[in-house]
Structures are given as C-alpha cells and as structure tokens.
Write a structure and sequence with these properties.
The complex is a heterodimer of chains A (241) and B (468). By secondary structure, chain A is an alpha/beta fold. Chain A is 39% helix and 27% strand. Chain B is mainly α and 468 residues long. Chain B is globular, with a radius of gyration of 22 Å. The chains are: A alpha/beta (241), B mainly alpha (468).
Chain lengths: 241, 468
C-alpha cells in the first residue's frame, strides 16, 4: 500500500515544554486513521506540524509526498484541514466564505458544490448569515464543508465531531467512513475513543507528547480487546511510569 | 467590580509580555519617558522661534489626537474586545459565564484600556518633562500642571470620541446633528469673541490659568461624556443573525486586476459590514486630522510660506499609514491556516487593500490644499503625503507583519519605527519647507518601501504563523 503521510522523529518544543517528542508514524492511502490521546497530549500540535501550520523543532514529515518543512503551503493546497478552534472570518456569510475558499483553492462550479453541502449538512437556511452570527455547530458544518469541498486525497481533522448533535455526528461518521472506502485518506485526532473504535482502521496513542502505540484497530478486535480499555490501560501505565 | 478590572489589567500585561517578553513591554513607557526627558532640553531652543504658548498648543493637540485615535470603543462595540488579540482575549468572554451584564464587562474593558494608555503614554511623557524641568528652567509647578492638563487633553479626546462613536452606533443622523451643532457652536464662539475657538479648549484654559472651578467642570464634562457613552452602548443581542445577499462574487470580479482579488474582496466586506470603513475614517482619520489642522493653523505665522500645507500632508501620511491596522485587525492568521496561503500572501493582500484605501488621504490632502487657497501645490502635497504613508506602512509591515496593533508596544519595534520614520520626516519636511516642489522628491521613498515590503515577506514567512 502507498504511504500518504509519514512522520519521522517529529519533535516540537515551545520553550522548555516538549509538546511532541520524537514521534514516528505512517498512514496508508485509504485509511481512516485516529490520533488518540488525552487533553494536552500533543494531538493538535502534531496536526499543525503535519499541515505546515507550525514548524517542527526537529525530525521530518511528508504528506502526499510533500515535505512539511520546505513546502507547507503546498501541503495545505492538497489536503483538507479542519483546525480545532479556528472559525471562519466574521464578516462573510457562509456562502461567501465558501466562495472565498473556492477562489483561493481555484475550485470550479462552487455554487453547485456549495449547495450540495448545504443540503447534505442541513444548513441551507444559514447560507446568507454572517459567520460571526452562526452557532458553533453551524460553524463546524461550514469548516467541514471547506475541508472537503475540493475532494482532497487526504483530510486532517482535529476533533471532527465536536459541536455536532447526535444526528449530525452519525451523518458525519458515515461520511468519513464512506470517504475512506473511496480510497481517500482521513486523519482525525480525537479523545472520543468509542468513535475512533467505531470508524477508524488504524490508530496511534499519544501521551505527554510521546507515542505509546500505533497499529491497526483490527489487531485489537482479533484479541477481543476494546480500544477504550486498551487506551486507558496504556495511558494509566504510562502515568505511573 | 474591581476584581474584574484588576484581572483584565493582569491579562493585558501577560498577553503582551508573553508575546515579546516582559522587559520589552515594561521598557515601552521608559522609552516614552526618555523621549520626553530628552525632548524637554529642546524646549529652550524652540522658544527662540515659536512662542511657549504655541508649543503648549502642539503638545495638547498631540494628546487630544492620541485620545481621539484610541477612543472609538463605541464603534465596534463588543467586537473591540476580541479584535486585538483574537482568541487570546479570554477574560471578556469568560466573564460572560458569571452573573455580570455585557455593559458592565464592556465598561471594565474601556476603563482598563484607558488606564493602560495612561500608564503607557501620558504619565511617562509628563514625568519626563517634570524631571527635566530643573535643567531646562521650566518651573516644577508648571511641569506638573502640564502633566495634569495633558491627561485631561487625552481624556477629552478619548471620552469625546467614545461618546460620538456610541451615538454613531445608534444613529448616524444624530451624530451628524451633534457634529453640526458643535461646528455652529465653535463658529459662533469665534464670531462672538473674535478668537480662535481652540483657545477655549478646557485643558489649555487650565494650563494658562488654573482654577479649581474650571478643573471640576472639565472633570464633570468628561464623566458625563463617558457615562452617556456607556449608557448608549448597545451590546450585541445574543441569537440575532445578520443576513446579506452575496456580495463577494461581484467584488471578486471588480478586483480581478489586483494581485490577490479574493483577499481584497474579503477585506472590503470586513471593513464595510463592520462599519469600520465609514466609522474608522471619521473617528481614526478625519477627526484627528481636523483637530491637528485646526491647532496647527495657529502656528501658520511661524512656518515658511506653504509650510503648513506640507506639514499637514506629512502628518496625514503618517496617520494614513495606520490604515494598515484597520485591515489587519479583523483576523489573525488562524482562519487562513487551513488554506494554501502563506503569511507573505496575506501581507501582500493587506497592503493591496491599504493601497486602495489611500484614496481617502489623497482626497483629504487635496481638500486641505484647495480650502487653504494653495491649490497650486495640491499635487506635490498629495505626492508627499501618500509617499510618506506607503513608506511608513512598509516599515510597519517589516517590523510587525500582520500584528501592528500588538507589536507596537514592543519597545524595540517602537524604537526602530521612530528612528526610520523620524529621519524621513525630518528630511522631507525640510525639503518641502525649502521649496514646495522638492516634495516631488518623496517618490524616491518607493524604493525603500519596496525593499521593506520584500524584507517583511521573507521575515514573516520564516516565523511560525500561529499565535496573534
């Protein structure tokens, strides 16, 4: 299988704090890969490094064959990204924001594509509302749309289900699984273990910036072990160390 | 009340000190103090050409202008609280989960900002003048009085604009009527007394002859302006949704000849829909410049012929360069981090929008030239003002990237900015004073401007785009 994302000894330090410490992992094409870890474990920093939003202190990584250090903008041009916190610009409407994204990414036929997403995520009634006036859930729908509207080969999503109601969570989970089945790759970070177990094909566990484990979910299933139990035992053991 | 205020002050300190170090931030007022202290030694020299009363006028006008430029709190309402630091400004938000009204939180925010500006600008300047007074022959009592009247001058600017911007947010017609009434009042005062109404500016009156009654009346007026502005403040109602028909696509077409059309279209919508384009033009540009023009007009006899026009043109250029802060205040790099956009692209796009906005200072300088009967020098004055503005924004972009509102408080940044701007202002003011047509030489500033922008792009692309 083709590796679409590869990190080698990736490290990020903020002053004296090491947010990510010497992490190596690889994600194959068509995978739905979950980066798991408790709060503050370095998941968001890892995604930021892999999408060229922050430079690694040491180590290297390639995403779709592009080096994250030498061409961060090139990576962002190829992948879809949903950051954890960032919201769309305040004074554009939802539709205008998608037009802005389309203009920057040079996506043709934006009206048709946007309408499909407005219908699919059920927020067509918010099309002309200013982004600053949208609820958190609707903003998340909009960010989700901008990440997938150009049908990227790889999407990196920080906490994909956050702010979504249960119905929308279900819809999004199905979409992500279907997207991966089409041969595209999804890389998500989450601390909702049940979701990861339900939809992910592979996973990695980060704790205090260190990689504790990486492998396929099927490996656990074969051992009749559940991901949440495995995760908790590993993290608790590491805490005591 | 006091706890929220003190915590907001602490938060502001920590945000700045985290961004560029406690020392760099702490030294900012020390530098202002140093400038005032050393500048005081020039006072005896300047008195040989300009009367002391006129020097006082300039200083008071400067502080009034500073107050005017920072006082537009009513313009953006709640937005002003999160604009400066984006998501870093947390206290104003977290306080919303407490049993406190929006009005109360906003009042604390405005008072905190006022106190901050006082300690960063007004007090250090006054102290510098006071401590230099034994060496410059200025009586200590006089220097202390100056500190008091400068503070009042700053507060008049701040509270006045806070009041007017709060009115503007409620009713533009009401603002127009009030400005008209003020204009008629000032004209009436000039006709009745035969004196320039500027001389009735309360802090100036107090400086020339201090009386407790005048002082208390000044304080009462300030309290009234501030109080009314707070009462008029209209917190955004939660749950309200503003809708607009699609304006982005037509703008994208219209700006297709520019380097980054989507960004210029977005910036234009930001400025227009936030009310900033008109509001900032009135409160952060036209009003301070009108005040400066009004005050400087009293100094006409001390300048060479046509000197006043070119001084206004240069001042307009410097103030027009702050339009870069209008276009950078709406977003951090964050919202662009999920797109194939480099910081240098964003700098280019913000500078493009800035360039479009330069039509405003160009028209202003042209209007000053026409109304002051010096239309013959309209073109050199506009060339000088706009060249200075572009040069100053080049310096700003190089030193601060996309965060001029925040990084200006880094003492190193301010020092370099003042040196680079000061040299240019001195040279071109002297040149224009010597011969009005020498102002055309300001076009050579295009070269350092181009170099500075180039350096800015390389510099800020090499820094992590995250943060403020």
């Amino acid at each position: 299988m083709t590796v679409v994302l590869e990190a080698k000894n990736l490290t990020k330090q903020y002053g004296d704090v090491t947010a990510v410490d010497n992490v190596s992992l690889a994600v194959e094409k068509g995978a739905l890969f979950g980066l798991l870890g408790p709060n503050g474990s370095g998941k968001t920093t890892m995604i930021k490094m892999l999408t060229g939003q922050t430079r690694p202190t040491s180590g290297s990584a390639t995403v779709l064959g592009i080096d994250v250090i030498s061409d961060p903008v090139g990576i962002r041009g190829q992948v879809g990204i949903i950051p954890e916190q960032e919201t769309p610009p305040s004074f554009l409407t939802a539709m205008e924001y998608l037009e802005f994204v389309a203009a920057v990414r040079k996506i043709p036929e934006i009206d048709t594509k946007a309408d499909w997403w407005f219908d699919f995520l059920d927020f067509a009634d918010k099309k002309n509302v200013l982004c600053k006036d949208l609820s958190r859930g609707t903003r998340q729908k909009l960010m989700f749309t901008q990440a997938f509207i150009h049908e990227p080969e790889l999407a990196l999503i920080d906490e994909p289900l956050i702010n979504f109601d249960p119905i929308m969570q279900d819809l999004v989970k199905d979409f992500l699984a279907g997207y991966a089945r089409k041969g595209k790759t999804i890389f998500i970070s989450t601390h909702i273990l049940e979701v990861a177990e339900e939809i992910c094909s592979g996973f990695a566990i980060l704790h205090k910036g260190t990689l504790l484990h990486t492998g396929p979910v099927a490996e656990l299933t074969a051992r009749d072990e559940h991901l949440p139990t495995f995760f908790l035992s590993l993290v608790r053991k590491d805490r005591h160390v | 009340m006091f706890e929220l205020f003190t915590n907001m002050v602490k938060e502001e300190w920590r945000i700045h000190s985290t961004m560029f170090g406690s020392l760099s931030f702490a030294l900012f007022p020390v530098m202002i103090f140093g400038i005032a202290f050393m500048g005081s030694f020039l006072v005896p020299l300047m008195r040989t050409t300009i009367p002391a009363g006129n020097l006082t006028l300039i200083i008071h006008a400067t502080y009034l202008m500073l107050g005017i430029m920072v006082g537009g709190f009513g313009l953006l309402g709640n937005e002003v609280m999160n604009r400066r630091f984006g998501q870093a400004s947390l206290l104003a938000y977290s306080a919303r989960s407490l049993p406190l009204s929006e009005k109360f939180i906003f009042s604390n925010f405005v008072i905190k900002d006022t106190v901050y500006y006082f300690f960063l600008w007004v007090l250090p300047f006054g102290l510098g003048y006071i401590l230099a007074s034994p060496f410059t022959g200025v009586p200590l009592a006089n220097a202390m009085l100056l500190l008091l009247t400068l503070t009042l001058s700053f507060l008049f600017g701040l509270c006045g604009v806070f009041f007017l911007s709060a009115i503007y947010a409620r009713s533009r017609l009401a603002l127009l009527l009030i400005l008209l009434a003020i204009g008629i009042g000032l004209a009436g005062l000039a006709v009745i007394t035969g004196m320039n109404p500027v001389l009735f500016f309360p802090p100036l009156l107090l400086y020339s002859a201090f009386t407790w009654v005048n002082f208390l009346v000044s304080c009462a007026v300030l309290a009234l302006l501030f109080g009314v502005a707070i009462v008029l403040f209209n917190p955004e109602s939660v749950g309200s949704e503003k809708t607009y028909r699609d304006s982005f696509a037509p703008l994208l077409q219209r700006f297709s000849f520019l380097p980054n059309p989507p960004f210029t279209a977005k910036d234009t919508l930001d400025l227009y829909r936030s009310g900033s384009l008109v509001g900032q033009t009135i409160f952060s540009f036209l009003l301070p410049l009108a005040v400066i023009w009004f005050f400087l007009s009293l100094l006409g006899p001390f300048f060479p012929p046509h000197g006043l026009l070119f001084l206004i043109a240069i001042t307009t250029g410097v103030i027009a360069s702050t339009m870069y802060t209008w276009v950078t205040m709406f977003d951090t790099f964050g919202p662009y981090a999920c797109l194939p956009v480099a910081v240098s692209t964003l700098i280019t796009s913000k500078l493009t929008t800035f360039a479009v906005l330069q039509a405003i200072p160009a028209v202003f300088i042209a209007a000053v030239a026409i109304f002051s009967g010096e239309a013959a020098y309209l073109i050199p004055a506009v060339v000088l003002g706009i060249s200075v503005s572009f040069y100053a924004v080049g310096v700003m972009a190089w030193l601060c990237g996309l965060s001029p509102n925040v990084l200006v408080y880094d003492v190193k940044v301010l020092f370099v900015y003042l040196i680079l701007i000061g040299i240019v202002l001195t040279i071109f003011t002297a040149a224009a004073f010597a011969n009005p047509y020498y102002a055309f030489f300001a076009v050579i500033l295009a070269l350092p401007t181009w170099l500075l922008v180039r350096m800015a792009k390389i510099r800020w692309d090499a820094v992590d785009p995250e943060g403020f």
